[in-house]
Design goal:
This protein is mainly α and 212 residues long. It has 7 helices and 5 strands.
Length: 212
């Protein structure tokens, strides 16, 4: 079944917001400081613009039968890196993360090209809120190592929406250079994909770490 002909505004009115939350509500329950929440919100707002632009371009390409060339990957990657560079200095790992995230976003869209939600602002916001938390978890982990922290403790929001595997590690303290053992794989910090864990451990994660 082909995607119905409609405008971008009509698409988003149809889809609404079913998955994502306003950024302040998404980060509010997290067990982090108000400053850490503010930083996550500000970065998520910039990332949201990047992913809205990407999904809107793909939406109009589908509506009008436009062939999208590979330049979209490079343009989106550059916009993404520019967005995060206002808060976090991109390194090789974050460059690779940007490439993988954009590829995955478009690959999933290609498998659901006839489904409205996959083009929507709701999806863009869901990607952005989870990714901002990952990026700051990555940055804070690096800062803790540079500050000679010795231990880290996993902090899960226990509100009934948590993953079972994340509930199991809530409050667990281990040496800072060791991996948390979750059902879906090993993670250094929330969102860490360096050991190729199952995606179910990563997407839209609201967990955080404390250091000592």
């Amino acid at each position: 079944m082909a995607l119905a002909k409609m405008t971008w505004d009509e698409l988003n009115q149809l889809v609404g917001y079913k998955i994502s939350e306003p950024f302040d509500e998404y980060y509010e329950p997290m067990r982090i400081t108000e400053e850490q929440k503010r930083k996550r919100i500000e970065l998520a707002e910039r990332l949201d613009e990047v992913f809205i632009a990407l999904l809107a371009e793909m939406f109009y390409a589908e509506q009008f039968g436009i062939i999208v060339n590979s330049d979209i990957y490079d343009r989106t990657r550059d916009s993404y890196l520019e967005a995060i560079s206002e808060s976090i200095e991109p390194d090789e790992a974050l460059f690779d993360h940007a490439v993988e995230l954009i590829y995955t976003t478009l690959e999933v869209l290609s498998r659901h090209k006839d489904e409205e939600w996959f083009y929507s602002e709701d999806r863009a916001r869901a990607i952005s809120e989870g990714d901002s938390n990952y990026l700051w978890a990555y940055e804070e982990f690096g800062e803790a190592i540079d500050g000679n922290a010795q231990y880290k403790t996993w902090l899960t929001i226990m509100d009934g929406r948590e993953r079972e595997s994340h509930a199991e590690v809530n409050g667990v303290t281990i040496p800072i250079d060791e991996y948390f053992e979750l059902q879906g794989g090993l993670l250094l910090y929330p969102g860490d994909d360096s050991m190729d864990p199952d995606i179910s451990e990563l997407a839209s994660c609201r967990c955080s770490l404390s250091f000592s």
